[in-house]
Amino acid sequence: MKRQSKFIFIVITVMLLLVATNIILFRQYIRNIEDDAATLNSLGIIRGSIQRFSKLELYGADNEKIRIDINSRIDIHRKVPFIDRVAEKWAELESVALNYRADPLR
Questions:
Q1: Structurally, how many domains does the chain consist of?
Q2: How much is the pTM?
């Protein structure tokens, strides 16, 4: 009887360790998904801000705050893959906007 209770204790201990490990791994997985969702949301804000910047630029409205916000959001996400391409295209759009401000009829 003692041998059987020792075996049951070991089995229960192993099962509890497996359950605890599963819980820890699941929480880590959820945290990673939340980080990815936050990154996607912020990148969507960058996209929408660039559209708004372009529209306000064409209307001649003040868009300096949006430009600063876009630059800061791009800087925050420098570790995101392909953000360098977004930053490069954003720099091109900024230079086009400055040229447009200087001479809108050109």
A1: 1
A2: 0.69
